[in-house]
Specification:
Blueprint lengths: L18 E4 L6 E8 L3 E5 L6 E5 L17
Antiparallel strand pairs: 1-2, 2-3, 3-4
């Protein structure tokens, strides 16, 4: 039997106050997590203050220490 390469995804457990950077897509950029529910997450842009409530969507890629945030 042949082996198959399979990618596994798991929703990221967001926490209020968490700082994130989305690298691609329509939400790309720096955000702070404001609120989290079972289905929704509210993001706040640290530069403009814009808020966006959206379905939970992100998957963890990596964590690293950065010298500057937001990265604008």
């Amino acid at each position: 039997m042949d082996a198959f390469e399979v990618a596994f995804f798991k929703p990221y457990p967001f926490a209020a106050g968490q700082k994130i950077h989305i690298t691609e897509g329509p939400r790309r950029g720096d955000w702070e997590i404001e609120t989290v529910t079972g289905r929704k997450v509210t993001l706040r842009c640290p530069v403009t203050g814009k808020r966006l409530e959206t379905d939970r969507f992100c998957y963890f890629v990596k964590a690293e220490k950065v010298d500057r945030w937001p990265t604008y």
